[in-house]
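Exercise 7. Predict the structure of Membrane dipeptidase from Pseudoxanthomonas composti.
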Amino acid sequence: MKRKFLAAALAACVVGVSGQGLAKDVVVSEKARALQASAINLDTHLDTPALFGQPGWKITDRHSFQGDGSQIDYPRMVEGGLDGGFWVVYTGQGPLDQMGKLKARDFGLKRLGEIREMVAANPDKFELATVAGDAARIKAEGKKSVYISMENAYPLSHDPTLLSYYYKAGLRMLSLVHGSHNDFADSAGTAPGAVTAREGLTEKGRQMIIEANKLGIILDHSHASPAVFDQMIALSKAPIILSHSGAWDVYPHPRNLDDKRLKVLAAHGGVIQVNSLGGYLIDTGATPEYRAELGKIYQSFGGRRGLDADARKQAMAQIAALDAKYKIKKANFDDYMRHLLHIIKVAGWEHVGLGADWDGGGGVAGYEDITALPKVVQALLDAGYKDEQVRAILGGNTVRLIEQVQSLADPAAVKAALE
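Solution. The predicted structure, encoded as C-alpha cells:
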C-alpha cells in the first residue's frame, strides 16, 4: 500500500529548501482580499484526513508547514480564506486478491468514519456538506464545509454495492483508480512513458460509472489513464471533474491532461482543478536511483500510521539531504501559475478550479500551505481576469458542477440509498 501521507509530508516539507528558482514575492492587495472574502473558496482534493490518526495532531491546532509538513488545519484555513472543499477517503492500491480487497474495504470505512468524527467533534467549526447550496450556507454561518470524496475505488472492490452506503454517509465524489491499475480502471502510472494494461475501463468500472451517475456522485478522472478519460466522457451522463491535475502541454507528465482533452472536458461541462505537486509541474530531475533511495527512506519509517512529530522531522532531514545529493529541482509558485493560466486559456475560466493536493504531495516554493491562497487571487487579477471569473475559479465552478451532476441523478436511486 502506498504510504501517501508520509511521502506527501516529506515532499512538502522540502519544497522550499533548495532556493532554486524561488517565485517572486506576490503582494496581496486589499482588492484581492475583499474579492476572495466575497467568493466561495473550495479546494477539491484535501488529503488532510490522513493526519487525523496521527499522534498529537489536531485539526483545531495551528500547525507549521516547516514543523510537521502539514498544510491544512482550521486556523490556517481561516488565515488563507479557504471555506472548505472535498476531504478525501484515500486508500493506497494493494493486492487485488480477496484479502487485499477486504483490508481496503475496512480501511476505507475507517477513514470515512474519521472524517465524520472530525466534523462531529467540531460542530462550531465544520459541517458536513452534501449539496451545492451547502457551501454558501455553511460559509455564511462562519464554518467550513466538508464534502467527502474517495480517491481510488479500491475499498469498493470487494463489494461495489457499498457505494450506496458511502453516499448515505456523505460521499459526493469518486475516482476509480490511483497510482496502479485496479479492477475498475487503468492508472496513468507514475512515470513518463507509463502504459496502460487493458485500454481503459473494465466492465466493473463501467458499471461503477453508471451507479455514480444514478446517485449524483461526481466522477473524478485524476490518476486515471487517457483512455479512461475518453471512455468516461463518452459513458457518463453527467459532466466529470479532474480534482487535482495539471497541463500536459506545459509539462508532459502522465498525470496531466493534454490540450485536446481539456477542450473536450469543457465541451462536456466538466471542470479541472489545478494541482500543485511539483513533480507534475516541472521536470525535477528525479532519476530511478533517486526514487529507489527515496523509497527506502519511506520504508524505514513504516508508513503514515503512528508517525509522530519527531519521526517526521527525522525523515524530512533525510529527504532534504537526498534531494541535495541528487540536485533535485524544486517547482515554485510561478510554475504553478504557468499551469493554471494555461489551463484557463485552453479550457475557459468556466471550467477551471483549484485542487492543490494539500497534505497529499502538493505545495511548491512560495505556495507551501493554504495560508498562501490569497496569492493565487492576486495572480489571477494581475493576469487580467475579472472579479466574476476569479470567483468562479475559486469555487463557483465547483458549486455549479455539484449542482449539475446532482440534477442528473436518478431520484429513485437516491431515495433508495438514503433509506
